[in-house]
Specification:
- With 337 residues, the chain is an alpha/beta fold.
- It has three domains: 44 residues, lambda repressor-like DNA-binding domains (434 Repressor (Amino-terminal Domain), Orthogonal Bundle); 133 residues, Response regulator (Rossmann fold, 3-Layer(aba) Sandwich), CATH 3.40.50.2300; 131 residues, Rossmann fold (3-Layer(aba) Sandwich).
- Helix content is 45%, strand content 18%.
- Strands 6, 7, 8, 9, 10, 11 and 13 form a seven-stranded mixed β-sheet that branches. Strands 2-1-3-4-5-12 form a six-stranded parallel β-sheet, with helices on both faces.
- Strand 6 and strand 7 form a beta hairpin.
- The chain is elongated.
Amino acid sequence: MVTLAEVAKHAKVTAATVSNVLRNRDKVRPETVERVLKAITELGYRPNLNARALAEGRSSTLALMLSNISNPFYPEFVAAAERAARRTGHFLMVCNTDDDAEIGRAYLNQIAGTLADGVLVMNTDIAINELCASALHRAPILLAMWEHPEAPPALPCVAVDFAHAGALAAKHLLELGHRKIGMLIGDGCGGLQDARSNGFRAVMHDAGVETDAAAVLQIRDSIDAGYAACMQLMANAPHLSAIFATNDLLAIGAAQALMTMGRVVPDDVSVIGITDIQLAHQVHPALTTVAINTTAIADLSVARLIQLIQQPAQPPSMVIAPLPELVVRASTRQWRP
């Protein structure tokens, strides 16, 4: 690997001059800049960004810490956040904790404030007070997709009104005439998806519809878990005409289980989820869901994190993302007793 000193020797200048050309060439005479750039090209020199970050105490990198990259939602969010970071001249480093809080702590200790100027955190088992301490001593931290806008955390965040998402799902099923509805509630690394289920329950309660306790299951977020839970749900309550799942993975698994049981979706049982991952419109039947604006959330998260990097003294604040929207597809229909 070619070093900065070798470039300086080749261009017959000092290492400091080469460094100035790379960082702020306005300080260097044009003929010297030309000579240094020629040397860089001829030798194929590439700056060591990690070393520069450690030396200067800053970098052009943002980190995104997420709980499980195998969940299809996260790669979609990563792609949107990477585009947003790139537009601002930043790189995006993705840190997958694999649902392990200790791995998350190790990432924060190793990269925050050194390899990354700021960290976006999504769904972690790390306590808020630990994240606050890390933000205080290392680098700004922003919580992306905070699910409780009614209860702002002690850290900056971009909040999504998931209670509204659950309410939209409930209204849709009620308008289709469904009254016997099962619930699959996700319980992932970020905790129980209670804002979504609470929004759903509130609308049902106002309509005079109470959900049978036997028709409610709390499970981990995955298609396989949704499949297994739906099999149990239908055994507990075979009279159900619809199933609400707090995320699309559970809903897709439920639809697969219903088809395995010989139930037709949506003729026999309607299914609705929340999030609108790409897979939702690719499965058959295409999934009715409540869409979360992933691109807008990623854009807001990156923009707010950069503000915090540039103005670290700002007090914690919450940015509200655009409201979720109902997307009607083929997995729900009017109930016909």
